[in-house]
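ok so i was messing around last nite and threw this chain in just to see what happens. nothing serious, just curious
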Amino acid sequence: MRAQFVLSEIGVGLRRNLTMTFAVVVSVALSLALFGGSLLMSDQVSTMKGYWYDKVNVSIFLCNKSDAESDPNCAKGAVTSDQKKEILADLDKSTVVDNVTYESADQAYKHYKEQFGDSPLAASLTPDQMQESYRIKLKDPEKYQVIATAFDGRDGVQSVQDQKGILDNLFGLLNGMNWAARAVMAMMLVVALMLIVNTVRVSAFSRRRETGIMRLVGASGFYIQAPFIMEAAVAGLIGGTVACGFLVIARYFIIDHGLALSEKLNLINFIGWDAVLTKLPLILATSLLMPALAAFFALRKYLKV
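result:
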C-alpha cells in the first residue's frame, strides 16, 4: 500500500467534509474532556477520603449532672470515676483504637468559647454544663461500629458520635456529581459516534466512483477502507488532543493559578500533576481507537467491498 496515496486520500476526505469533521472534533473533545474530568474527580474524592478519614475522631460523650436530669441515656446519673476508668481500660484494650485523648468539661467549655464565643447561647453556658469526652483515633475509620456497639448505651455514656458520618454526606454529594458528569460524557460519546458514522457514510458516498474503480482493478477491501478509517482516527485524535489541552489548562488555572484553589482552600488535599498526566495517554488512545473502530464497522455496512 502506498502511504502517500493513503495520506492524500485522508486530506481530501477531511477537506470535503470540513463541517462534519469539525463537529466530530468538537464532540470527541468535549466527551473525552468530561471522561478525563470524571476520572480526575474520582481520584480527587479518593484523595480527600484518605486525607480526611485519617483525621476522623470518634467521640464518646460522658454524662454530666445536667444530662442526668434530661437525657434518658443518663438516667442513672452523671458518670463516676470508676466508670471512666473502666471505659478507658476497655479503649486501651481495643484492637481498633490507635490513641485516646481525654477532654475535660473545662477544656470543652474553653474550646466552645473559642469557636462560638459570639453566639448568644455561649453567654448562658457554664463549664459544668459541658460534657467530658474521650476523643478516639481509630486505626481504620471504617471500624466505627465496633466502638459504637461496645460503648453506646453503657452506664455513664451519653452518646457515641462519629465524624465520618458528616464526611460521608459530602463524599456522597461529590460522587453524585461525578456520576452526573459520566452520564453527560456517555451521551456526548454517543453523539460523537453517530457523527463519526455519518461522516464516514457521507465520505464513502462522495467517493463511490473512486472506490468502484479500485474494486474493478482488484484493490483489496482493506486498501479501500484504510483512508476512511484513518480519516476518522485523525479527526478523533485531534479531538483527543484538544481534550488533553482542556484538562491541563483546567488543572493549571483552577487549582494552581487563576482561581488558585490550592491556596484558598488549604483544607483540601488536591490531586497533583501526576494524576493528570497519567490520564492523558488513555484519552489519546481512546480518541484514536474509538473513531477508527466506529468507522470500520460503519464501512462494513455502507461500503460494499
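not much to say yet. The two ends are 17 Å apart (CA to CA).
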